[in-house]
Amino acid sequence: MTLDISRDQALDLLRDMIRIRRLEEKSAELYSKQKIRGFLHLYIGEEAVGVGAMHALREDDNIVATYREHGHALIRGIPACEIMAEMYGKANGCSGGRGGSMHLFSAKRRFYGGHAIVGGGLPIAVGLALADKMKGESRVTACFFGDGATDEGEFHESLNLAALWKLPVLFLCENNEYAMGTALYRHVSDRDIANNPPAYGIPADSVNGMDVVAVERAVHNEAELVRETSQPRFLELKTYRFRAHSMYDAELYRSKEEVEEHKKQDPIENFQARAISDGLVTQADIDAIEADAAKEIAEAIEFAEHGEWEPVEDITRHTYARDLS
Amino acid sequence: MAEFIMPSLGADMTAGILAKWRVAVGDTVSHGDIIAEVETDKGLIEVEVFESGVVERLLVEEGEKVPVGTVLAEIGAESAAAAESPRKADASHRPRGALAPSPAHRAGSTGPAAAPGSIISAGSSDVDLDGPLASPAVRRRAHELDVPLEGVQGSGEHGRITLDDVQGVAQGGAAPAPSSDRIRISPYARRIATERGVDVSQIRGTGPGGAIQANDVLSARVPEPRKSMPAAERMQRAIAAAMTRANDEIPHYYVEHSIDMGRALAWLRETNASLSVSQRLVSGVLVLRAVAHALRKHKKLNATWQGGEAVPSAGIHVGLAVSLRGGGLVAPALRNTDEGSLSDLMARMTDLVARSRAGVLRSSELTSSTITLTSLGERGVESVTPIIFPPQVAIVGCGATLERPWVVEGQVVPRPIMRVTLGADHRVSSGHQGARFLSTLDRLLQDPEKL
Amino acid sequence: MTSDEIRSTLLTCLTDVAPDLADEEIEDDADLRDELDLDSMDILRWVQGIHKALRVEIPEEDYGKIASLNDAIAYVAARI
Amino acid sequence: MTTYRDAVRTALQTLLREDSRVFLMGEDVGRYGGPYAVSKSLLKEFGEERVRDTPLCESTFVGAGIGAAVGGMRPIVEVMTVNFSLLALDQVVNNAAVMRHMSGGQFEVPIAVRMATGGGKQLAAQHSHSLENWYAHIPGIKVLAPATVQDAHDMLLAAVEDPDPVFVFEHQMLYGIEGPLDTEATPPSPWKAAVRRPGTDVSLIAYGGSVHKALTAAEELEKAGMSAEVIDLRSLRPLDRETILQSVSHTHRAVVIDEAWKTGSLASEISAILAEDAFYELDAPVARVCTLEVPIPYAKHLEEAAIPQVDRIVEAAKRTVGDG
Predict the structure, then answer these.
(1) Among the listed ranges A115-124, B109-118, C13-22, D138-147, which one has the minimum average pLDDT value?
(2) What is the ipTM of this complex?
(3) Crossing angle for the helix pair A153-164 and D58-70, nearest 10 degrees?
(4) B160, B259: one domain
(5) If you ran DSSP here, which 8-state letter would residue A41 be given?
(6) Residues C59, C57: Cα–Cα separation, whole Å
């Protein structure tokens, strides 16, 4: 089956997936060197989801993401240097060094944050959609969450409220088969997550999250339906995380064979191979993309290394609009 | 050449065990390859290499635990590695036990220093330890009392200056007041008492649990709004409060003994006749010395009551009750009353009495007595029933030395008789012990030349 | 040395011994022990002060002869 | 004279009329008219869009309020009682309080959350607690406790106007009280404590429902010859340290009245403030009159015994003066 996209589209999708992967590989290295601290949840293996979705959404739409959000943030337009500086904890990071890897934010790009309470971002997305609806905006609020979040009460409450009030939320479930280290079949009663939303009157669909083109199409269709009907919709993106939950773990919960099996579905390698065989891109294109990505990351590290630490005297900043003391 | 380091595999990881090498010297590795396994608290973790090249040296043995940042291996560029192959071969043949001497630890010290978290601890280790060690309360008290902390010898842990130390210096180096002397008073009341120069030991508290409150301080009689009242008056007030408490708290017992002072007075007359006016002795100094010598034998009476038990005093410092004209009473101590010559003791006693009358006693002289001697004989009083000065546990009272009929060798003869009363704390000594003290005192006064 | 000069010297010695008497009106015939509340230590120091100022030595057995200021003036005047 | 309930409703009406970004949501705020009848008739005037009955999902409707606030609205969220608000604590602590900070100041959460608190109506152990201190513990949010009719009105206006998340605790025993309401006057800053009654001998420091008990206690103390000053904290976060310290600096004695349990209470916090900054002003140990360490019982006499009452305040105040 050939890819039904243009060369430019193919280059864009490929470039963005490679940018995410290289940024994260570098992040892992910097973490092991203690430049980056805290938790560092890598998206490697899941790039097609973020890239496909971000390409499908409009600039004016709202994004609510999880703590595994470097890719979403990068493709949404937050510069790699600001992301890297944030992970370094520098004042010139995209959250001023207050958030770190799990809490990337950008008001300018309507990126309402990486949220690290599983399920906690869903009510926020519902509220953002409520505000838009009351103000008469035709915006879609895209809310990312993992399969683990579907266990939470807030997931079910949010589906109910969004459906009840007919709010323009696109629920995007990134099902990577594990809630941290607990396999899907161990944490949900019905492994078909897309069976949940119809109970609340929300249409739901599933798509292969390892196929960037399929993701882009599905998200585009769902988002436009949300916009049109001003009603919530649900899309499950079936994907897989190649690396540990956070940086490193002993991976006691899954076998190497299982990981290796999924790596055959590598969204980048597969897409690259298909695009080459379809004649959409050449090896030279890929080399250029890699070179650009390397340069972008080198610059990001440079930016982060030279960023300022926020003075400790300013520690209470951003707690309130005006300092209370 | 690049270094392969012990990675930080989690925010809480500080060290790891190199469990297994997946490569050997000479192997070619590329970015992302798993080249080692590291044992952490979370389990065995495969560690990837972020460089490409040839493994030149393995610096850490399997099973060795090293800190994060330690160089585990050196990775050379492929071409360079080829050029240096002889050396590489040497390295590969080096027995396991003869690894290069651990440059590991050099890296261990440089790596983590750049971690963002380090800014928090920066400076915390070089806390300014100059200047005296003293808590804020101590500093505040020292400031109030105008005591420079630099000059205070701390008695607390590591030479820490305590409130008692400051108090002691303020009172002229007095020994710290025993804790049983703590007064229940509110912080506010204490503050205004200090401001007004009111001696809180004089005040009876009406607050919760009998604590002194501001009203008690405000209604306390302050003779004049002077910054400080005359020393003698301050002392007199302190003694009055102490007497009240002593009467309430100490179970007194009394034993009395009549002492024939004939030999002592005769010796005194004889001695004084040969002395210049400035060296003349009074009978009081004989009694004073005799009491001090008697205490050497009866140590139980030379003690202080602290925190529910008697603490023997290190030296014998007899306090001499001196009545002041105008009704005041002070009992300053003559330190080491049992030591030195009698004329020296006389000189010290003269000086002490003079300064008592002039109101220029040092507070230390008022707080360091280990027992008190009071004499009211001059006023014709026959005997005294004195009250112990806390925290002392005994007091000796002398009446007048009067000519009384006395039986000597079966004959009634007039002799100068002095009635001596011992008042003592029954928690510390018994009447029997008290009686023995008085007979020792009697015997000593029969040999005045030995005093 | 006039009687007044002696009186003045004896008074100075007395207030050295008992500074608080300086402000009081001392009656010349008042009993020093009973009315001015001097004790044997005070008398001794007074005697020592007189000895120093006027070179007059008063032996212990004569203490009874200096019971008041007037007595003392007379005693000293006779020996000066 | 106006009731506290009507004062809150008046403020809601004013806000809904004057600012199109404002809307009210919560359980039974619409058709039912609010569990305490605060929002009665508002549905009729403003419609379902702006007076929203929510499903019973505290976490999500508070979270949606937060999202709507971030999205540019000025939501007023009513939670039926403080006990129910615990279901929404995740959204309060992990989102409302931290969004501004975590985003480096890029997003703000101008939400106002109202809820009933306190005991006194025999509603037992799941409807009667005072957990204001849980909220006052959290940096990033602000906490108000209106005790008077005027404050019930003014503080809601201030809460909605504020750019930060504000939690307004309305004591359930106060909805029926009457007092003057001036909607024209310029209100005092809601973040400052108020001296409700001046006095010289002891400071009675209280908030919310306890303020009225403190005032009654002050009257009784006056009969006993003691002049008590009553401080209404009004704002529980930020706490107005200055007014507290000023009062105790001239009375030198303090009794803190708090309907929460004593352990870890705001009364503890105020006691600590006094120990830290007014130590040398204290003429007696600080006394606390708090709820006994027991879930609020149903039986009337037990409930009364559990929560602070006038006699306990009077007794505590007298104790600070001692036996003199």
Answers:
(1) B109-118
(2) 0.63
(3) 60
(4) no
(5) -
(6) 6
CA distance B14 to A34: 11
| Chains in contact with D via at least 3 Cβ–Cβ pairs below 8 Å | A, B
**Helices vs. strands in chain B: H and E counts, helices first:** 14, 18
Same domain, B357 and B292: yes
CB B264 within 8 A of CB B423: no
Q: Does B225 score more than 70 pLDDT?
A: no
- How confident is the model over D164-184, as pLDDT tens digits? 999 999 999 999 999 999 999
Share of chain A above pLDDT 90, in %: 95
**Identity (one letter) of the amino acid at D216?**
T
Tell me the CA end-to-end span of chain D in Å, nearest whole number: 43
- Both B316 and B435 in one domain: the answer is yes
- Pair of tokens at residue B387: 């009250």
**Same domain, yes or no, for B43 and B144?**
no
| Top CATH class, A7-314 | alpha beta
In a domain, B121, yes or no: no
To the nearest whole percent, how much of chain D has pLDDT over 70? Answer: 99
How is residue B45 written in tokens?
A: 């973790």
Q: Taking CB atoms and an 8 Å limit, are B116 and A31 in contact across chains? A: no
In a domain, B126, yes or no: no
Name residue, tokens 């949501």: D25
Cα separations in angstroms, D93 against A112, A186, D191:
17, 29, 21
Q: Which two three-digit tokens encode residue D166?
A: 């504000």
Q: Yes or no: say if A253 and A181 are a contact pair by the CB < 8 Å rule.
A: yes
**A113 shares contact with chain D (CB less than 8 Å):** yes
* DSSP structure string for A184-219: HHHH-SSS-GGGSGGGGT--EEEEETT-HHHHHHHH
Count of CA atoms in the C-beta half-sphere (13 A) of D187: 23
Q: Which residues contact B204 (CB under 8 A, 6 or more apart)?
A: B210, B212, B216
At C24, is the pLDDT very low, low, confident or very high (cuts 50, 70, 90)?
low
Q: Is the dihedral of CA C58, C62, C65, C66 positive or negative?
A: positive
- D127 catalytic? Reply is yes
Cis peptide before B391 (omega within 30 of 0): yes
Identify the CATH class of C3-79. mainly alpha
Q: Does B225 touch chain A (CB under 8 A)?
A: no
In the numeric block, which tokens belong to residue B160?
């820490």
- Report how far Cα C15 is from the mean position of its chain's Cα atoms: 9
More confident residue, A138 or B118: A138
How many domains, in total, are found in chain B? 3
Distance CA A206, CA D175 (A): 51
- Rounded Cα–Cα distance for residues B137 and B163 (Å): 8
The pair of three-digit structure tokens given for residue B27, joined into one six-digit string: 């192997």
The catalytically annotated residue of D27, D127, D153, D259 is D127
* φ, ψ at B319 (rounded to 5°): -90, 140
Residue B67 in contact with partner chain A when CB distance is under 8 A: no
- Placement of tokens 């292969």 in the chain: A208
> Is B214 in the same domain as B244?
no
The mean pLDDT of D1-19, rounded to a whole number, is 97
How far apart are the C-alpha atoms of A62 and A60, rounded to whole Å?
Answer: 7
List beta partners, residue B16. B66
> Of the given ranges (B38-42, B50-54, B84-88, D190-194), which has the lowest mean pLDDT?
B84-88
pLDDT band, very low/low/confident/very high, at B337 (cuts 50, 70, 90): very high
> pTM for the whole thing?
0.66
- Mark whether D137 is an active-site residue: no
pLDDT at D206 over 70: yes
Distance (Å, whole) CA A307 – CA D308: 55
Domain encompassing residue B29: 2-115
> CA-based angle B252:B258:B262, to the nearest 5?
145
Domain ranges in chain C are 3-79
* Mean of pLDDT values over B115-120: 34
Q: Are D16 and D46 in contact (CB under 8 A)?
A: yes
Banded pLDDT at B195 (limits 50, 70, 90)? confident
Asked if D90 is an interface residue toward chain A (Cβ–Cβ < 8 A), one would say yes
